[in-house]
């Protein structure tokens, strides 16, 4: 290694330059080939239901939708309406990246519907919004390109206008989160390098020795980024938008640790009196196995992430593993070469060991008095762990984003002018094997909505039976009872009006029957009674003949109606003569004639 030290160092530097010039940068590759941060439908029933809902209601891409929030102090005036209409037309024309556009303000069916307009236009008229679905799964490169395309259309449409427009929603939040993470990586790296450098300077008390771990870390990071970008560009390894950040964090710690291991053993051998080449050889021989075991453990643990069902988590494993492997080779080859070249110039050598006595005395005290040290350490750990019960995990991603993020600005505008969670609600998908558009199914849906609204934490339930979140007035029991009473009242008056003439005719018929009974003799009534069976038989015979000649009767509709009416009068005639026969048995002079006792108006 000492004979070819310069060649080894130059070779590693050349590899770092080559992989970063031949292949694109890792951030660019991650934007173009990143996997979705969300699970697939097979893993997440919620996302599967969302896709089914979008397919059933003609809204493909509803799981990757953006909400375009517009706000103007002048309200939805002529200029705002014109720009809004222009934006809707541009979005609908962008068929490559936009899957659907929900335009309730411009829909002719919704213009005269105050409930529908209230959902997209604030009460003060200063804020309104539209929704659009994007192509691709949330967080994928296609979805990010679609978001950038829609963002450009929004900025072009409202440029120079008094109306401000921001894009929010799930797609906007994920995009802002990725942009914020990529923007923070340089800051995190700079802070990490400064802090590690100060710590190493305090430990080694040598500028050169403190810079060695940082040199190894920089070369390892440079080569690892290029290698991962090249492999991901060709689809050999998965990559996500956080792969670069995780790989950088793990690689920095690993490379510094491995460097400190080897340099510390190198200094120990020199203090033991060995020559510089021998001390370096012994340090490499003894520590390489330790570094290999440590690196293999970390690499295998991260490779195992490929078994994760969440693709976003599985994609981070290979990047971290390759970063650790690169760090191992750089530490075990370039670092010894660098130490060999530095030793010839008197650099990288150990200084006076001022803290050796301190650490030796500390070890002796711990061995002699283990329980006091154990107690102090336990108290410190318990004090640190005492904050765990007060931890409140949050799934609100917007809280971790900066206030200047576009999605946060849009969400603040929505929350200030619309009810909380009314724009981005939780959906409950109901599916059935039969048509739900019937009274019984609608009643069941309304009952389900009523019970859900009673759950703790549920503010409002909006559905087919509750368009505005409140129970329909026509569906309340009080309204139905009142409606039934009104109809019964109307029907009662109509019935009285229709039946009164019939009652009057029945009264007149009773008077006629009474008069006929008084005038007919016993012989006349007897003859009528004898003729009744014969008359009924003739009627029934005639009815049978009419049935046989039904086809002819169908052509003679008018005559058929009259004949059918005559045939049906048989029972009435029989009842009439039965009454007459009964009347014949009464005395000639009734004290109270039937007409006097039957009074329909009484």
From TrEMBL:
Pfam families: MMPL (PF03176). PANTHER family: MEMBRANE PROTEIN MJ1562-RELATED, MEMBRANE PROTEIN YDGH-RELATED. Residues 45-372 form the Membrane transport protein MMPL domain. This is MMPL family protein. The keyword Membrane applies. The keyword Transmembrane applies. Gene3D superfamilies: Multidrug efflux transporter AcrB transmembrane domain (1.20.1640.10). Signal peptide: none annotated. The chain crosses the membrane at residues 185-204, 211-232, 244-267, 279-304, 310-335, 371-391. It is a multi-pass membrane protein. It is found in: Cell membrane. Belongs to the resistance-nodulation-cell division (RND) (TC 2.A.6) family. MmpL subfamily. The lineage of its organism: Bacteria, Bacillati, Actinomycetota, Actinomycetes, Mycobacteriales. Keywords: Cell membrane, Membrane, Transmembrane, Transmembrane helix.
């Amino acid at each position: 290694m000492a004979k070819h030290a310069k060649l080894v160092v130059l070779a590693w530097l050349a590899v770092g330059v080559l992989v970063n010039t031949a292949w694109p940068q890792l951030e660019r590759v991650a934007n173009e080939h990143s996997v979705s941060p969300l699970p697939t439908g097979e893993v997440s029933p919620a996302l599967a239901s969302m896709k089914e809902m979008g397919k059933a209601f003609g809204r493909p891409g509803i799981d990757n939708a953006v909400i375009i929030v517009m706000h103007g102090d002048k309200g939805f005036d002529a200029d705002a309406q014109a720009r809004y209409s222009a934006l809707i037309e541009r979005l609908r024309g962008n068929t490559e990246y936009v899957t659907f556009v929900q335009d309730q303000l411009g829909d002719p069916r919704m213009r005269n519907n105050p409930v529908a307009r209230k959902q997209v236009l604030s009460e003060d008229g200063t804020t309104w919004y539209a929704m659009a679905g994007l192509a691709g799964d949330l967080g994928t490169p296609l979805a990010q390109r679609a978001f950038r395309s829609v963002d450009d259309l929004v900025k072009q449409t409202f440029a120079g206008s008094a109306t401000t427009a921001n894009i929010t929603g799930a797609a906007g939040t994920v995009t802002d989160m990725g942009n914020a993470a990529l923007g923070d990586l340089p800051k995190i790296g700079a802070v990490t390098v400064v802090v590690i450098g100060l710590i190493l300077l305090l430990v080694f008390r040598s500028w050169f020795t403190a810079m060695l771990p940082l040199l190894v870390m920089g070369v390892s990071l440079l080569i690892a980024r290029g290698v991962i970008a090249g492999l991901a560009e060709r689809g050999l390894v998965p990559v996500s938008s956080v792969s670069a950040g995780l790989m950088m964090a793990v690689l920095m710690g690993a490379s510094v640790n491995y460097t400190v291991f080897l340099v510390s053993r190198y200094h120990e051998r020199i203090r033991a009196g060995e020559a510089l080449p021998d001390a370096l050889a012994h340090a490499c021989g003894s520590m390489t196995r330790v570094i290999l075991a440590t690196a293999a453990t970390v690499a295998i643990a991260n490779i195992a992430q490929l078994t994760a069902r969440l693709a976003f988590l599985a994609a981070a494993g290979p990047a971290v593993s390759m970063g650790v492997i690169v760090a191992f080779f750089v530490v075990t080859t370039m670092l010894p070469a660098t130490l060999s070249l530095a030793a010839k110039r008197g650099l990288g050598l150990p200084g006076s060991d001022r803290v050796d006595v301190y650490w030796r005395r500390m070890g002796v005290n711990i061995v002699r008095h283990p329980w006091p040290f154990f107690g102090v350490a336990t108290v410190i750990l318990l004090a640190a762990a005492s904050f765990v019960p007060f931890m409140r995990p949050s799934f609100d991603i917007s809280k971790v984003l900066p206030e200047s993020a576009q999605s946060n600005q849009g969400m603040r505008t929505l929350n200030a002018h619309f009810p909380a969670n009314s724009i981005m609600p939780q959906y409950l998908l109901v599916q059935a094997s039969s048509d739900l558009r019937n009274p019984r199914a609608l009643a069941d849906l309304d009952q389900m909505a009523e019970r859900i609204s009673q759950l703790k934490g549920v503010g409002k339930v909006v559905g087919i039976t509750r368009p505005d979140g409140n129970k329909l007035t026509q569906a309340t029991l009080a309204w139905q009872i009142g409606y039934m009473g009104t109809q019964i009242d109307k029907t009662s008056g109509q019935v009285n009006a229709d039946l009164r003439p019939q009652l009057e005719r029945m009264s007149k018929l009773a008077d006629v029957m009474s008069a006929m009974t008084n005038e007919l003799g016993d012989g006349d009534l007897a003859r009528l009674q004898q003729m009744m069976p014969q008359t009924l038989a003739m009627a029934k015979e005639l009815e049978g003949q009419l049935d046989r000649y039904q086809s002819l009767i169908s052509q003679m509709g008018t005559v058929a109606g009259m004949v059918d009416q005559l045939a049906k009068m048989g029972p009435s005639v029989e009842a009439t003569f039965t009454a007459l026969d009964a009347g014949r048995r009464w005395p000639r002079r009734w004290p109270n004639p039937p007409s006097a006792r039957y009074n329909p108006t009484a």
